[in-house]
Task: structure prediction
Amino acid sequence: IASASGVNGIKGINWKDIEETMDDFVGDQDTFLAQIDTKIQDLKDHIARKKGEASSRAITEEEITELVKRAVEHETSFASKDVAVKTACGKPGMTTTDGKRPNPKGFENGVKVIESIAGEFFDEQISQKDYVESEMLSFTRVCEDSLGFQ
Result:
């Protein structure tokens, strides 16, 4: 099995069969590339759909206000929004209009309650494919504004 080194040996090579074999090979590769291009486009479309589904929105001020209201009205925190506002969420020395002191653990419990309520809120939104996000600074600002902090 030696390669042809002379002119007659090279002329004797069946170049037509080699060319047909190469054409078949190139044709197969073109078919594979077309299939891969189709698969890539399908995956790009799939990713675009997933990104569209997963896009999130910022939590609204109304939603934050409702979460805060539910937390301060919980029996383990302040039991009413009015008490939370009048006592600045349990600030020492602050009393309600009738002179009563708020729950001494009201603020601490309120934090636990808001974490629980917010967790339920976000879980519910995710189950509805409503991806909501919140940032601490804006959440705190709306919370303080809804409770009358200046």
